[in-house]
Write a structure and sequence with these properties.
single chain, 268 residues, mainly alpha
Length: 268
């Protein structure tokens, strides 16, 4: 079937999906979590439930490029602590998708986006309000904070379950993991390397679940084949921009776009 007629999408809608794919590549190599905008675009153009299956291979392509770029900077002890809790979240998300119809999924995605935006704004304001000495202490070391304490383990499990659920239901685990990695004291390259491996492993593990739910099939993969090429320039753009980008302004734009996307899904 012609990829331009899948789900009756128009040329303008395909262009929107292509732009979202570019943003996926950019977010994977520059600002993790920015692809929540891509999520909103996919869910607005395609049926919300099916959009998660179409977007997943696009995300995996971005993850592969991110791993190739930042593979030397991953912090594996943190990854091993997170994976068991994430697995629980993925299973819970799969059960949710079994009974949830398109309207429920669309509303859930919108609510998740708005919730993540609110928490991100809260986190940024809390960071800005922190004493300078505390901020300096957090950035002094090259290694992230240990999570061997009971509080640290509880924090890792909580973020892991929420991240697994949101990534399974809405491919929206980026903001959750971004908040966890930042709060753990990761610096930029360690953040990007750990995030790259985390999402590559998690997203690949989601493929059997999504296929079993009928969210990935021949038609969705045909559309993915037409879109995946747009991930590559986005990834190269992100690699170029990561040391030059005005992080504060970009986060503000991402938050604003995410709020608009989430509101649009809730009001649709």
């Amino acid at each position: 079937m012609n990829t331009m007629t899948l789900w009756h999408i128009t040329h303008w809608e395909f262009a929107a999906l292509a732009a979202a794919a570019v943003l996926v590549g950019f977010s994977k190599t520059a600002v993790s979590g920015a692809n929540t905008v891509s999520l909103a675009i996919f869910a607005a153009v395609l049926p919300a439930r099916e959009s998660t299956g179409v977007l997943l291979p696009i995300l995996i392509a971005g993850d592969v490029l991110a791993v190739l770029t930042y593979r030397r900077h991953a912090h594996w002890p943190t990854l091993w602590r997170l994976f068991p809790a994430v697995a629980v979240g993925v299973v819970v998300g799969t059960v949710f998708l079994v009974w949830a119809d398109d309207e429920v999924v669309r509303t859930s995605i919108g609510a998740i986006l708005l919730f993540m935006s609110g928490v991100t704004v809260w986190r940024r304001r809390r960071t800005e309000a922190a004493p300078e000495s505390e901020s300096a202490a957090e950035s002094a070391g090259n290694e992230p904070d240990a999570v061997s304490t009971p509080t640290g383990r509880l924090k890792a499990r909580s973020y892991g379950v929420l991240g697994g659920f949101t990534t399974m239901v809405a491919n929206a685990g980026g903001p959750v993991m971004s908040m966890y990695l930042l709060s753990a004291g990761f610096r930029k390259l360690g953040f990007l390397g750990t995030s790259a491996f985390f999402f590559l492993i998690v997203n690949v593990s989601k493929v059997p679940f999504s296929a079993g739910l009928g969210l990935i099939d021949g038609q969705s993969l045909l559309l993915d084949a037409a879109l995946v090429v747009f991930v590559i320039p986005g990834a190269f753009l992100g690699k170029w921009a990561v040391s030059r980008i005005n992080q504060r302004l970009f986060e503000q734009l991402v938050i604003a776009a995410t709020v608009v996307g989430g509101a649009q899904l809730l009001l649709r």
